[in-house]
Backbone:
């Protein structure tokens, strides 16, 4: 009977080390992709939450602002003021942080653009007791209309001192030719409003680290003829 010679060759240590190295690289790449995907998803979710909060808050604020001047006899520019962060009055068409307006001779309401959102001082129609159109004190009852989590935006890297995502500015503009409420067309026999409130916010969508995309909500102050 002939002897059969079998050639046997095992796996060398070097081949095992190479295979292990390649496996580790692939696993690390997969883990990196998983972490990156999770981070992007979390950032997108936070950004979408911020933008949706701004939009819904603007809708609620628009309804409140439409009532400015209601109940006053012949409301004029003297019945509202835009103030800066220190509480000093600013001119029309100038950005401020507060909008204070009268609801009666003794009561006011106010919007305040804070870094963490937009507050309404005097959440009820009666407003709060005031002696003038001044910066409201913090002890006055208020409602948070728009909530912005600046700490989360900063920690995630979405918001910074350049793009300022979530920041809200307030200004009042005189309207040449007058304005009318949304959905109502001005015409013969219809008195148009003299002023409009512009709320401008920096959004997450289409923004970059250095430039913010802004949105505006414009409310006609129809009671100011």
Residues:
């Amino acid at each position: 009977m002939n002897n059969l010679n079998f050639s046997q060759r095992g796996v060398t240590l070097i081949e095992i080390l190479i295979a292990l190295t390649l496996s580790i690289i692939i696993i690390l790449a997969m883990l990196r992709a998983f972490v990156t995907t999770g981070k992007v998803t979390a950032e997108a979710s936070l950004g979408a939450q911020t933008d949706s909060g701004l939009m819904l808050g603007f809708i609620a604020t628009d309804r409140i602002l439409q009532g400015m001047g209601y109940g006053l006899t012949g409301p004029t520019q003297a019945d509202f003021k835009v103030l800066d962060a220190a509480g000093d009055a600013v001119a029309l068409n100038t950005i401020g942080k507060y909008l204070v307006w009268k609801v009666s001779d003794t009561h006011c309401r106010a919007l305040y653009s804070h870094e963490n959102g937009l507050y309404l001082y005097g959440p009820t129609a009666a407003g709060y007791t005031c002696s003038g159109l001044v910066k409201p004190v913090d002890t006055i009852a208020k409602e948070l209309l728009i909530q912005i989590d600046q700490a989360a935006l900063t920690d995630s890297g979405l918001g910074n001192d350049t793009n300022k995502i979530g920041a809200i500015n307030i200004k009042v503009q005189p309207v040449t030719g007058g304005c009318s409420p949304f959905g109502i067309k001005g015409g013969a026999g219809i008195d148009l409003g003299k002023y409009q409130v512009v709320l401008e916010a920096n959004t997450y969508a289409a923004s970059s680290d250095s430039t913010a995309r802004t949105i505006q909500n414009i409310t006609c102050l129809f009671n100011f003829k």
